[in-house]
Amino acid sequence: MPALNPYLASMPAGYLFREVASRIAAYEKKHPGSRVISLGIGDVTRPLPSVVTEAMADAAMEMSTPAGFRGYGPEQGYDFLLKAICKNLYEPRGVTLGIDEVFVSDGAKTDTSALQELLAPEARIAVTDPVYPVYVDSNAMAGRAGECRDGLWSNIEYLPCVKENGFIPPLPRHYVDAIYLCFPNNPTGTAMPLAELQRFVNWARQNGALIFFDAAYSAFISSPDVPRSIYECEGARECAIECGSFSKLAGFTGMRCAYTVVPRGMYGGTLLKMWKRRLAAKSNGVSYPVQRAAEAVFTPEGSRAWRDNIDYYMNNARIIRNTMRKVGLTPYGGVDAPYVWVETPGGMSGWDFFDFLLTRAQVAGTPGEGFGPSGAGFLRLTAFNTEENTQEALRRIRAALGTK
Ligand SMILES: *Cc1c(COP(=O)(O)O)cnc(C)c1O
Questions:
Q1: How far is the CA of 333 from the centre of ligand 1 (A)?
Q2: pLDDT for residue 404
Q3: Which 3 state secondary structure label does DSSP give 155?
Q4: Which residue in 212, 10, 233 sits closest to 117, CA to CA?
């Protein structure tokens, strides 16, 4: 037997979505002809704007000509896309970035799971609870998380996001080397106002810690006091690395394009140098046609199309929130993110409420417990289905809860 990575070998199995799928399959098998509607979809569903796919097709055709052929591109990304990201996603928010500080990649999952490579093996991290599992799993596989008991790792500090604190995490109680924050949040759908995020930036600067900020849902923000980027906070350029993605912004989950910002001045340029060195060793960049497609996201036609898609999803989020209130439940989130975090009735567990809605309404959500212990007693509903299916699911929920 070869000496295998013991941390990877002993990872607990990914349980949540497998269990959800198996309960739905079991129900459908027992009730042939039933149609379960999923309000658990964690992926975009609207097609790409044609200006984006045409840009990709044109770039692909260019590659078949002697003059247009391109081999390996710059591993950091083509200048045209780096410039487009700075100009369209940061300048409007008053954030000036140099293109040397932006790194294009094939996904925020790739990048957020790689951030831990910047840390020493013994470094300590903090995450929110509930949490997007990638941050925890990547640290656990690197041997930094300790032991897993009841869904919590012994070396990770968890910052609970519960209704009592409005789903805004408390500052870490002990020193940590890095804090992972994702706002607007998956799974709670809640956002962090600028003043709250500023407290984290101040803490990180005072303590010489890093913030890894996942801004995957920034395009869904509508509240005026919520920052799209952590660099809207004073001093964030000294302590924060930000990951963004075209996935939820422009429907790129099947295209694969994202970016990470590492400010030049962080620790005298050390962090930027490390990220560059790492990338040069591990990546040959993202394909040229995909980068051209991402650039086309910012054309007037492209922008109109993805804004329309986001409006479409957020209309679903609004009707989910309104219906939850009408049936006497309490929804959180769903204003600046495509997720609604619903408190279960009568202190039910998230799994019990999941089963209740599956069997009484043929509607599937995602139990909050699956994202961490503080998710207990919540169900995540997502806005990514069609409006028709969302309306039908909500009609069934109203009927099941006896509130036509
Ligand atoms: C969907 C999602 C992403 C995007 O990941 P990609 O790899 O870019 O598709 C990142 N972070 C969170 C929290 C997400 O939910």
A1: 18
A2: 55
A3: coil
A4: 212
CA of 186 to the centre of ligand 1 (A): 9
pTM of the model: 0.97
Confidence check: pLDDT of 317 > 90: yes
Q: How far is the CA of 351 from the centre of ligand 1 (A)?
A: 24
Same domain, 92 and 209: yes
**Residue 216 CB–ligand 1 contact under 6 Å:** yes
Quick one: how many helices (H) and strands (E) in the chain?
13, 15
pLDDT, one tens digit per residue, over 66-112 is 999 999 999 999 999 999 999 999 999 999 999 999 999 999 999 99
Residues 72, 85: one domain? Answer: yes
Give me the CATH number covering residue 262: 3.40.640.10
DSSP structural state of residue 170: P
290/393 same-domain check: no
Domain boundary among 299, 325, 346: 299
Which candidate, 143, 118, 137, places its Cα nearest to that of 212?
118
**CA distance readout (Å), 26 to 130, 227, 389:** 27, 43, 21
What would the two tokens of residue 130 be? 């509930």
Mean pLDDT taken over the chain: 97
How much distance in Å is there from the Cα of 232 to the middle of ligand 1?
A: 21
* Among the ranges given (14-23, 50-59, 379-388), the one the predictor scored with the smallest mean pLDDT: 14-23
Q: Is the CB of 228 under 6 A from ligand 1?
A: no
Residue 48 CB–ligand 1 contact under 6 Å: no
Residues 85 and 224 in one domain: yes
Question: Any residues with CB less than 8 A from the CB of 219 and at least 6 apart, and which?
Answer: 228, 248, 249, 250, 306, 310
Mutate to test the pocket of ligand 1, among 248, 257, 290 (most ligand atoms within 8 A of CB): 248
Provide the 3-class DSSP secondary structure of residue 382.
strand
Residue 236 shares a structural domain with residue 374: no
How many folded domains does the chain comprise?
A: 2
Q: What is the mean pLDDT of residues 35-63?
A: 96
- Among 43, 181, 186, 336, residue to substitute to test ligand 1 (most atoms within 8 Å of Cβ): 186
Residue 385's domain comprises: 6-47+302-400
